[in-house]
């Protein structure tokens, strides 16, 4: 399997690697996994927002707990 | 300046799925952490809002998972040559080492902050110590240097009930320390039984687990010693008045079972060693879950009677 190509511009700036070897099927699979990763990250971020909101509301309500 | 080929390949070939990142958290280890922490939380005096208790437990579990991800990042070279771990996300190439370390680091930080906000900063500090001990002391220092790696490193796995106790009370007392001692003494027999099964793997990876560097007789004797110490520590909650007769009966029975399996391994020959080690490994898992389950049941009985 051929590796990705890496190049530089005339001024020496790197050019992003070009995937010159992915078949349509492999490309679609990478795309699906990237999409599922993005959805998972979005869900985690939403979860974090909800988590901090809930913690704040309960702590502000003064019912966090009693230590004996 | 050019983009290194390895970086370019990582960009193009990143095939990690969300499941790979879940696998980095070592879910089976997390289940033990969650259960022992839950017991520590239930036994702790005082009350805490049930939602905050659940969030605290979640944070402790995520902290344990973060330790697993960091461990997989730092130990990817070892994992790649061991059959048990070669298919993990990092050695199999599905997740890069840097991604695993970043993921673990972010989760570690997040779990500590969430625990501090949901409970108190004493518990958060203890969770920080737990993660730091597992990564700094066990993974980076002891694991590749001494056969006592799992003995000392086991302290990290024994801390979750103490963290959970602190999440409720804001302090540490003798009772959670006894739970710590039970898990701490249980760890060597549990892991050395596994290490006997994977002796060749550990030898190939250059990890000086006791079964790799010590004779079979010495290893089995050490396993028996720790099984006996575990069984004795198991009855401490009743001896010290923290648990009742029901727990004592279960603890004695489970302890006798664990010691019996260790005795059988002690007397096994080369042909039966792997089978006996495998059975001891299985019994050790049942032992810890059942013992902590008995503590819960005993507390429930005390409340009802």
Average the pLDDT over all residues of chain A and give the rounded result: 74
Number of strand elements of chain B: 1
Class derived from helix and strand content of chain B:
mainly alpha
- The CATH homologous superfamily of the largest domain in chain B is called UbiA prenyltransferase
Helices and strands of chain A, in order, run as EEHE
Helix content of chain A: 40-55%
Order of strands, main sheet of chain A, comes to 1-2
Q: What percent of the residues of chain B sit in helical stretches (DSSP H or I)?
A: over 70%
- The number of distinct helices of chain B, counting runs of at least 4 residues, comes to 16
How many β-strand stretches of chain A? 3
How would you describe the overall organization of this protein?
Chain A is of the alpha+beta class and about 70 residues long. Chain A has a domain at about 20-60. Helix content of chain A is about 55%, strand content about 15%. Chain A is built from one helix and three strands. In chain A, strands 1-2 form a two-stranded antiparallel sheet. The longest helix of chain A is centred in the middle third of the chain and has 37 residues, at about 25-60. The radius of gyration of chain A is 23 Å and the shape is elongated. Chain A starts with a strand and ends with a strand. The model of chain A is unreliable at about 1-5 (pLDDT under 50). Chain B has about 300 residues and is mainly alpha-helical. Chain B folds into two domains: about 15-170, Orthogonal Bundle (Tetracycline Repressor, domain 2); about 175-305, Four Helix Bundle (Hemerythrin (Met), subunit A) (Up-down Bundle). In chain B, about 80% of the residues lie in helices and about 0% in strands. Chain B is built from 16 helices and one strand. Chain B has helices spanning about 5-15, 20-25, 25-45, 50-75, 75-80, 95-120, 120-140, 150-160, 160-170, 175-195, 200-205, 210-215, 215-235, 235-240, 245-265, 270-305; one strand at about 45-50. In chain B, α4 (about 50-75) runs antiparallel to α9 (about 160-170), α7 (about 120-140) runs antiparallel to α9 (about 160-170) and α9 runs antiparallel to α10 (about 175-195). Chain B is flat, with a radius of gyration of 20 Å. The model of chain B is unreliable at about 10 (pLDDT under 50). Chains A and B meet through β2, α1 and β3 of A and α1, β1, α4 and α6 of B.
């Amino acid at each position: 399997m051929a590796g990705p190509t890496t190049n530089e511009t005339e001024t020496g700036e790197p050019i992003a690697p070009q995937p010159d070897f992915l078949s349509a099927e492999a490309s679609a699979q990478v795309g699906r996994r990237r999409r599922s990763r993005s959805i998972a990250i979005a869900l985690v971020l939403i979860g974090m927002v909800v988590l901090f909101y809930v913690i704040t509301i309960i702590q502000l309500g003064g019912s966090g707990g009693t230590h004996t | 300046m050019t983009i290194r080929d390895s970086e370019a390949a990582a960009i193009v070939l990143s095939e990690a799925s969300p499941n790979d990142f879940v696998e980095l958290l070592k879910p089976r280890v997390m289940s033990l952490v969650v259960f022992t922490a839950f017991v520590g939380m239930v036994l702790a005096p005082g009350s805490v809002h049930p939602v905050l208790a659940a969030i605290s437990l979640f944070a402790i579990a995520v902290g344990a998972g973060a330790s697993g991800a960091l461990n997989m990042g730092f130990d990817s070279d070892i994992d790649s040559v061991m059959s048990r771990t070669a298919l993990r996300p990092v050695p199999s190439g599905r997740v890069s080492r840097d991604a695993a370390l970043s993921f673990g680091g972010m989760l570690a930080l997040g779990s500590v902050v969430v625990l501090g906000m949901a409970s108190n900063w004493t518990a958060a500090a203890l969770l920080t110590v737990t993660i730091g001990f597992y990564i700094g002391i066990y993974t980076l220092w002891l694991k590749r240097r001494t056969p006592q790696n799992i003995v000392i490193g086991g302290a990290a796995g024994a801390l979750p009930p103490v963290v959970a106790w602190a999440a409720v009370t804001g302090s540490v007392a003798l009772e959670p320390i006894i739970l710590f001692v039970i898990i701490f003494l249980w760890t060597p027999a549990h892991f050395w039984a596994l290490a006997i099964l994977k002796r060749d793997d550990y030898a190939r990876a250059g990890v000086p687990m006791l079964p790799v560097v010590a004779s079979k007789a010495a290893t089995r004797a050490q396993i028996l010693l720790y099984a006996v110490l575990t069984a004795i520590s198991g009855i401490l909650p009743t001896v010290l008045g923290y648990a009742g007769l029901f727990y004592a009966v279960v603890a004695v029975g489970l302890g006798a079972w664990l010691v019996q399996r260790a005795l059988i391994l002690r007397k096994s020959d080369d042909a039966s060693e792997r089978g006996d080690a495998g059975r001891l490994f299985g019994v050790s898992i049942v032992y810890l879950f059942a013992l902590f389950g008995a503590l819960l049941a005993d507390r429930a009985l005390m409340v009802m009677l």
